[in-house]
């Protein structure tokens, strides 16, 4: 019954629509057939991976809907689309906006454009494949592992996938970010300025926390669990705890804070302003993510640590240009981009101390 109702709505929309062409996609066919987009693509392109019964059902539905493939896209496939696909399975802070801008900028220098998807990796890759995109960047998060559906779609993908920022994938380029050393270098900088009580704001189960802990041990700094402010959602912080720590007596308050993502910065600064505190007079601050916003988002330019966005994108372009021929002879590159510390006005020595 649901299939008949869906067909009826499609038919009515064709009669009432302004376009002379039926707006039917393989997603519509997949919904009616009760299969994945990848299965529809295999069936319509006469590729293996679906049973004869499923293939026949998909073809019958496509004929009933008068499905017409995008011939312009087919022609693009013959020439190989000079477009970069970008898949974000997570979006945190404004870092990703600057990363997209940099891909667009460097892509234009190579006569390439950018197509971005925030869908699940398996869905996004299937759609990018439909558009005959040969180069795909995937930013999946540090704890990501490919799903079975993603691997099925990847089997059909003939281009090059580059995993950036975290996670691993066979037969794909990989650009790793040394987050552990980034936060370690932030602790080192603060220790050299004389700070002993340093608070950490961010996730408490990733490489950044490891770097923070190593820094405390290396420089024999105080560890206080009360100065660990965590939240599973970037962009949100436990306001009561934050106000309690920031509002404590100067002799008890941390003399410096390290924020593990610019996504946590807004709620942190909101609490700072609420308590009429000043940076770096009351405490120093370092934020992970090297993006231009950090120089203007607050009253004083913020000290930052993290990978250079331009170098991340250049590394990706180099992977593609150096990967060699397609097929089994293709070389899969693995690169680690080191983080950079940019010292600005938000960090300073403790009153009465001489930095080492």
UniProtKB/TrEMBL annotation:
<dbReference type="Pfam" id="PF00356">
    <property type="entry name" value="LacI"/>
</dbReference>
<dbReference type="Pfam" id="PF13377">
    <property type="entry name" value="Peripla_BP_3"/>
</dbReference>
<keyword id="KW-0805">Transcription regulation</keyword>
<dbReference type="GO" id="GO:0003700">
    <property type="term" value="F:DNA-binding transcription factor activity"/>
</dbReference>
<dbReference type="InterPro" id="IPR028082">
    <property type="entry name" value="Peripla_BP_I"/>
</dbReference>
<dbReference type="InterPro" id="IPR046335">
    <property type="entry name" value="LacI/GalR-like_sensor"/>
</dbReference>
<dbReference type="InterPro" id="IPR000843">
    <property type="entry name" value="HTH_LacI"/>
</dbReference>
<keyword id="KW-0238">DNA-binding</keyword>
<dbReference type="InterPro" id="IPR010982">
    <property type="entry name" value="Lambda_DNA-bd_dom_sf"/>
</dbReference>
<keyword id="KW-0804">Transcription</keyword>
<protein>
    <submittedName>
        <fullName>LacI family transcriptional regulator</fullName>
    </submittedName>
</protein>
<feature type="domain" description="HTH lacI-type">
    <location>
        <begin position="24"/>
        <end position="78"/>
    </location>
</feature>
<dbReference type="GO" id="GO:0000976">
    <property type="term" value="F:transcription cis-regulatory region binding"/>
</dbReference>
């Amino acid at each position: 019954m649901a299939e008949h109702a869906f067909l009826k709505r499609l038919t009515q929309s064709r009669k009432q629509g302004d376009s002379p062409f039926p707006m039917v996609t393989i997603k519509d066919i997949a919904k009616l057939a009760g299969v994945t987009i990848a299965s529809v693509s295999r069936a319509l392109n006469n590729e293996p991976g679906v049973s004869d019964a499923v293939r026949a059902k998909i073809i019958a539905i496509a004929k009933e809907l008068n499905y017409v493939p995008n011939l312009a896209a087919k022609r693009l496939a013959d020439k190989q689309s000079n477009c970069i696909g970008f898949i974000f399975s997570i979006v945190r802070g404004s870092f990703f906006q600057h990363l997209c801008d940099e891909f667009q900028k460097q892509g234009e220098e190579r006569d390439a454009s950018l197509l971005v998807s925030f869908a699940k990796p398996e869905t996004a890759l299937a759609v990018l494949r439909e558009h005959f995109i040969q180069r795909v960047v995937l930013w999946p998060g540090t704890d990501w592992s490919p799903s079975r559906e993603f691997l099925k779609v990847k089997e059909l993908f003939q281009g090059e996938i580059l995993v950036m920022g975290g996670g691993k994938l066979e037969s794909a380029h990989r650009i790793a970010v040394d987050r552990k050393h980034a936060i370690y270098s932030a602790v080192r900088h603060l220790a050299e300025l004389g700070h002993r009580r340093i608070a950490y704001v961010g996730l408490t189960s990733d490489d950044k926390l490891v770097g923070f802990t190593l820094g405390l041990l290396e420089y024999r700094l105080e560890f206080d669990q009360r100065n660990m402010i965590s939240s599973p959602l970037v962009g949100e912080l436990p306001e009561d705890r934050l106000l309690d720590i920031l509002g404590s007596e100067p002799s008890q308050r941390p003399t410096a804070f390290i924020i593990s993502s610019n996504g946590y910065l807004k709620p942190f600064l909101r609490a700072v302003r609420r308590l009429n505190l000043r940076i770096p007079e009351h405490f120093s601050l370092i934020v992970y993510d090297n993006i231009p916003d950090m120089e203007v988002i607050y009253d004083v330019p913020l000290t930052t640590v993290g990978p250079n966005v331009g170098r991340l994108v250049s590394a990706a372009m180099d992977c593609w240009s150096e990967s060699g021929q397609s097929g089994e002879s293709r070389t899969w590159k693995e690169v680690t981009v080191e983080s950079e510390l940019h010292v600005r006005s938000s960090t300073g020595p403790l009153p009465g101390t001489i930095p080492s």
